[in-house]
Write a structure and sequence with these properties.
By secondary structure, the chain is an alpha/beta fold. The protein has a single domain (about 15-195), classed as Rossmann fold, CATH 3.40.50.300. Helix content is about 55%, strand content about 10%. Strands 2-3-1-4-5 form a five-stranded parallel beta sheet, with helices on both faces. The longest helix has 24 residues, at about 65-90. The radius of gyration is 16 Å and the shape is globular. The chain starts with 14 loop residues before the first helix and ends with a helix.
Length: about 200
């Protein structure tokens, strides 16, 4: 079981991160099933920013699904495409970007995200992630004989990278996406005013 003791359940946005968020880009990182796309869409509405999902952008440009890319090009090919999309989107302004769960595996991606805007890590427990992803066949990394164990392995590998990259860590498991997005929007707006 993964402990959540070190993660504050409340949203706490202060100083420079809040300023970047109010005037620039916001990048959501976290595991598959953490709510990046759902919360990102809602947050973009509340903050009047344009929403992008890096996986959807890759699918639009290639014309095929993520599992198909994994099948043809492998994870390495997919990660290369992911870095290209992130690099392009770094030139955009006033956006909210939901990244793929593995975007932080690349040091180049972590640096781009960290310096390109405010990075928010949506963190959820393994149980919550499993509940949200267990029936989803569009998760190539979970197409194994023991997908829950694979999810736990990925979490252990990626959690430190998300933390390293993030300016803000938010527990996403127990709150509704709408409530979480509203809370984030309010805190980011307040922080940008009080600096």
């Amino acid at each position: 079981m993964i402990s959540t003791d070190a993660v504050a359940p409340a949203v706490d946005v202060k100083g420079e991160a809040g300023d970047r968020a109010a005037t620039g880009n916001i990048f959501l990182v976290g595991m598959m099933g953490a709510g990046k796309t759902t919360v990102g869409r809602l947050l973009s509405h509340f903050l009047e920013k344009t929403f992008y999902d890096s996986d959807r952008e890759i699918q639009k440009r290639t014309g095929v699904s993520i599992p198909t890319i994994f099948e043809i090009e492998g994870e390495e090919g997919f990660r290369r495409r992911e870095t290209e999309i992130l690099s392009e989107l770094m030139n955009a302004r006033n956006i909210i970007l939901a990244t793929g769960g593995g975007a932080v595996l690349s040091g180049v991606n972590r640096a781009m995200l960290k310096h390109g805007g405010t990075v928010i890590y949506l963190r959820a427990s393994i149980d919550d992630l499993w509940r949200r992803t267990r029936h989803d066949k569009n998760r190539p990394l979970l197409q194994t004989s023991d997908p829950r164990a694979r999810l736990a392995e990925l979490f252990v590998q990626r959690d430190p990278l998300y933390r390293e990259t993030a300016h803000i860590v938010v527990e996403s498991g127990k709150r509704s996406p709408r409530h979480l997005a509203q809370s984030l929007a309010q805190q980011l707006t307040i922080s940008s005013r009080t600096g």
